[in-house]
Design goal:
Radius of gyration: 25 Å
Order of helices and strands: EHEHEHEHHEHHEHHEEHHHHEHHEEHH
Helix content: 25-40%
Distance between the termini: 36 Å
Shape: elongated
Structural class: alpha/beta
Largest sheet: 6 strands, parallel
Oligomer: single chain
Number of domains: 2
């Protein structure tokens, strides 16, 4: 493997839970030295949330934590104490980038706001990824991605029209990190060209609302209010998840154009119902969509989800089986080909398979290393990276600053 593109970049990572760690995972996987600053008094949520290996709880056994914190170093500091904050400032002097995803204003209240950091290192790049950013009436609102998904409107458009909005979980936690990582890379390029750092105030809410831009534009122009419509789509029919052979097996199918419709009919060997005028155009298929879905379901229910997907894809019709976790990790040829899940050895849980980055760049190597045990790198980081003496480290341990 060639040199990783972010080798030599140093990150002081104050993030936790999902959005922040997923952001800094990008940096670590591409070679940056990312030091995750933790505390055993306030453990990262995913260190104490299941699923755990063998259903045995423990701060180093969580599946999600070990998946989204690959390649990082872990140190434990009590940031509630003044000496802990002073120790944290030493990371600022060492780092190129400081990241956090606390509620707006939290870092500033700890004495670690951008203005304070600039006094320590003028060209520092700081990225704060709060739910609502650092300004505005909601700037100090704490919360998680499941609440933000509702606030951003994603719940309102998810589910069935005759039921309450669907619970899609912390969907925004998959959107925000992509914006975060790209802005950090842009800031690194800006600093390379100008020698200047930047403060990146990235509201997760803004990135999430951007994700539903078409329906916002539809309201702005046409005054249409988007809401739940199940698996239907205004511009496709059939469009849905259709039952297949086996228990709880499904395949998603989308037909948008006349060409796709004809290919779909050809795959079905053009039964009589496909020639009915009420299915001839997208408009007529939408008008008779309940009957159409029933006919499609009769066809798919006699086949495996894999066969439906492969046959339709081969004919140019968008289709994908609705796979469970086992399907994705064990039986998905595409993910296998891309080496998406890579086996690593972990000292606490043994062999496990964290994911690589979704993108595979042809000229940019990426390396996945296992996630850290809590506080695993205290000695190495404080001694080798921050250059503290043995006596200084011993004193900080005695005072409970290094945990």
């Amino acid at each position: 493997m060639g040199k990783l593109p972010l080798e030599g970049i140093k990150v002081a990572d104050f993030t936790w839970v999902w959005t922040g760690p997923t952001t800094t995972k990008v940096l670590a996987d591409f070679g940056a030295t990312v030091v995750k600053i933790e505390s055993d008094k306030r453990l990262d949520v995913w260190r104490i949330q299941p699923p755990f290996k063998d259903d045995v709880p423990g701060p180093d056994r969580g599946a999600i934590f070990n998946s989204i914190n690959t390649g990082k170093l872990s140190v434990t500091i009590d940031l509630s104490q003044p000496k802990g904050k002073e120790l944290a400032k030493k990371f600022v002097a060492w780092a190129d980038i400081v990241t956090d995803n606390y509620a707006g204003g939290a870092m500033e209240r700890m004495g670690l706001g951008y203005e304070a950091l600039k006094e320590i290192k003028p060209d520092i790049i700081m990225m704060s990824s709060a739910l609502m950013g650092q300004t505005g009436p909601w700037h100090d609102s704490p919360g998680y991605g499941d609440q933000l998904s509702a606030i951003s409107g994603l719940h309102e458009i998810s589910g069935w029209p005759d039921r309450i909005p669907g619970e899609i979980g912390f969907y925004t936690d998959f959107i925000a990190p992509r914006f975060n990582a790209l802005t950090i890379l842009a800031a690194l390029d800006y600093r390379r060209r100008t020698g200047k750092g930047q403060y990146l105030d990235i509201a997760q809410h803004q990135g999430s609302v951007h994700f539903i831009a078409p329906i916002l534009l539809d309201y702005a122009v046409n005054k249409r209010v988007a809401t739940r419509q199940g698996n239907l789509d205004d511009y496709a029919a059939p469009h849905g998840c259709y039952r297949c052979q086996g228990e709880d097996r499904w395949c998603a199918i989308v037909v948008r154009t006349d060409e796709e419709w004809q290919s779909f009919c050809d795959v079905l060997r053009n039964p009589a119902w496909t020639k009915d005028p009420k299915f001839a155009t997208l408009k007529s298929r939408k008008e008779n969509e309940d009957e159409l879905n029933k006919m499609v379901d009769e066809w798919t229910s006699n086949q495996s989800d894999e066969d439906v997907m492969v046959t339709l894809q081969s004919a140019g019709v968008p289709a994908g089986r609705v796979g469970n976790t086992e399907d994705q990790m064990e039986n998905d040829p595409h993910l296998k080909f891309r080496n998406f899940y890579q086996e690593r050895e972990h000292p606490e849980i043994g062999k496990y398979r964290p994911p690589r980055q979704p993108c595979v760049l042809s000229k940019t190597p990426c390396e996945i290393k296992r996630a850290p045990l809590i506080g695993e790198h205290n000695e190495y980081v404080f001694k080798e990276l921050l250059c503290l003496t043995d006596e200084e480290i011993e004193e900080l341990i005695i005072d409970g600053i290094i945990q």
